[in-house]
Design a protein that fits this description.
- The chain is α/β, with parallel strands linked by helices.
- Helix content is about 40%, strand content about 15%.
- Bound molecules: phosphoenolpyruvate.
- The site of phosphoenolpyruvate (PEP) has 13 residues, from strand 8.
């Protein structure tokens, strides 16, 4: 299975800079298309332009969130159906920044993931513990509950991806040890199997301070099927540096 390297641009980029980033990346990926499966997730209003910028390359474009409903009175939200209609292939749901900033519960994340599947999108479901939870030895309890609560009904390894992102590693330059990442990924796979029968063939990404310098080691860990990348997805050089380092 090819690794999946997905860039979460978060609330970064304006029209010109995001176009340059997407088209610069498309040139690199077109020249070496076999390194990995690559996706970028820009802010909603940039999606259409990003799709145009990567057209003719194998890069997929995704959203950073979607609403659980197909349409309706939900000011400021974006439906999975619109993301699909625009040409997106995937959507991130349950990112820790949305769980923290918007109080999203696993129950809501599950509904969003189900809306994504209904719209024909791959749902990238994020889980991960805080530093306090890790220090208290609660990583498996917390991540296990998030998996049980957030995975959509009826998902398959083709339609669901889990991103394990320790909250304390996001944007901090800190990462768990390679052994710790491997252990949590093995736990995530077995829990996804127990919970939704999704273990075999499921892609489990690691996210949290992946950079060109640590990507080769992290991506070589058994059970790590790719990376969800924040900060380092914002320059062509860094993001390509990660893609190029896929084993
Ligand atoms: C993220 O927010 O999904 C992320 C992994 O961020 P960073 O790579 O900057 O730690």
């Amino acid at each position: 299975m090819a690794k999946l390297i997905a860039g979460n641009w978060k609330m970064n980029g304006l029209m010109a800079s995001s176009h340059a980033l997407a088209s610069g990346l498309a040139e690199k990926v077109k020249a070496k298309p076999d390194r990995a499966d690559v996706a970028i997730c820009p802010q909603g209003p940039l999606i259409k332009d990003a799709l145009a910028a990567v057209s003719g390359s194998p890069i997929s474009v995704g959203g950073q969130d979607c609403h659980a409903s197909e349409s309706g009175a939900h000011t400021g939200d974006t439906s999975a159906a619109l993301l699909a209609d625009l040409g997106c292939s995937c959507v991130i749901v349950g990112h820790s920044e949305r769980r923290a900033d918007h109080g999203e519960t696993s129950e809501q994340v599950k509904s969003k993931a189900e809306a994504a599947l209904k719209a024909g999108l791959v749902a990238i479901v994020c889980v991960g513990e805080t530093e306090a939870e890790r220090d208290a030895g609660q990583t498996e309890t917390v991540v296990g509950q998030q998996i049980d609560g957030s995975l959509p009904e009826g998902g398959t390894p083709q339609t669901v991806v889990i991103a394990y992102e320790p909250v304390w590693a996001i944007g901090t330059g800190r990462t768990p040890s390679l052994e710790e990442i491997g252990a949590v990924h093995a736990f995530v796979r077995s829990r996804a199997q127990e919970s939704q029968g999704l273990g075999d063939g499921l892609r489990i990404l690691y996210g949290g301070s992946v950079k060109p310098g640590n990507a080769a080691d992290i991506l070589a860990i058994p059970g790590v099927d790719g990376a969800l990348v924040g900060g380092a997805s914002l320059t062509v050089g860094d993001f390509w540096g990660i893609i190029e380092n896929c084993p």
